[in-house]
Amino acid sequence: MTQKRALLLRNPKARRGQEPITPMLQRMQSGGLDVTVETFEALPEIARDIVRLRHMADLVIVCGGDGSVSSAALAAMESGLPLGIIPMGTANDLARTLEIPMDLVGAADVIIRGETRPVDVGMVNGHAFFNVASIGLSSDLAQSLDPELKKRFGRLGYALAAMKILTRASHFSAKITEKGRTIDVETYQIAVGNGRHYGGGNVVEESAEIDDGHLDLYSLEMKNLWKLALMLRSFRSGTHGAWSEVRTARCVEFDIATKKPMPVNTDGEIVTSTPAHFKVHPKAISIFAPAAGKPGRTGRPSLYHR
Question: Nearest CA to 90 among 131, 137, 47?
């Protein structure tokens, strides 16, 4: 059996980044992969490593969280190499979306089997994301979350930081443009989803899939943020659009502008700021993942419906 060359990029700062990888590497070796391991200390190094070493590889494997995988997306797209995921982060929402096992050896087995799934890639101002990009509450959370708190307590760390953010949150004014039409909103958060899961298991929209060729937007426009507590269950199922305070839309491109530049959070990392142009690249990259069914999709109203 001819061995395939795998470039494995490991983030030791990920929540599970210090777990032993020897059993996983041994499984890959026995499964026909010749693995070169590189360790990176900062997310921009991922793309540089892929560009620098792509001639030595038939596939790229990222050991890290959602931010690590998204940082590899553009370089993987440009190289044409399929992407493998070993989920070592806190939320691992992309792995959840693609039904990749959370245990390292199980995730390695998915790569060894060699079955890939073409998925969409979201872009905002030239930065890639797989799960969701957001402005407002989630960006505030990403900026305030202590890395050590996140690594030590995982999703509980997110919850503790979120409670602090909610106590001082305020709404902001934004202009959202879809298909050349613009509306003005007062909102606490605008999220644009490419995949299905985000935030440790929340669902972007109940029928959203990572290969549907669309972006799903929602805007939180309640007058009192306390009502968010009543809506939490609907966010877990993706039915939050049923609430009158939540504006939803589905499109392939959105533009969002704010009075002052506001940070944009993509898959847990602050990467750019408003004004922000969002666009989807359908089936732009192949990821090693179990085969997925194709559930029926339902139509969504335009941006101007609440």
Answer: 131
Q: Name the catalytic one among 38, 45, 245, 269.
A: 269
End-to-end CA distance of the chain: 57
User: What is d(CA 215, CA 37) in angstroms, rounded to the nearest whole number?
Assistant: 34
Q: Does domain 127-282 have CATH number 2.60.200.40?
A: yes
Parallel, antiparallel, or unpaired for β 4-10 and 83-87?
unpaired
Positive or negative, the CA dihedral 64, 67, 69, 74 is negative
Angle at 271 between CA 193 and CA 227, to 5 degrees: 50
Overall CATH class of domain 4-114: alpha beta
Domain ranges of the chain: 4-114, 127-282
pLDDT in tens, 254-270: 999 999 999 999 998 89
- What's this model's pTM, rounded to 2 decimal places? 0.86
User: Would you call 269 a catalytic residue per the annotation?
Assistant: yes
